[in-house]
Amino acid sequence: MSPLVLGFSSLALVLVLIAVRFPIGVALGGIGLGGIILLRDVDVAIGVIKDTPYEFSASWTLTAIPMFLLMGSIAHNSGISKSLFVAARLWFSALPGGLAVATNMACAAFAAASGSSVATAAAMGRIAIPEMLRHGYDKALATGVVASAGTLGSLIPPSILFVLYGIFAEVSIVKLLIAGVFPGLLTAAVYTIMIIARAKINPAIAPPLNQDEIAALKPDRWKSLMKVWPIVVLIVGIIGGLYGGIFTPTEAGAAGAFLALVIAFIQGRLNMEVFRDSLMEAIGATAQIFFVAMGAVVYSKFLALTGLPYYLGGLMGDWALNPLILVLAMSGVYIFLGMFLDPLGLLLLTLPVLLPMFEALDLDLIWLGVLVVKYLEIGLLTPPVGFNVYVIKSVVGDSIPLETIFRGVAWFLACEVVIVALLIAFPQISLYLPGTMD
Question: Domain coordinates of the chain in residue numbers?
Answer without folding.
Answer: 3-435
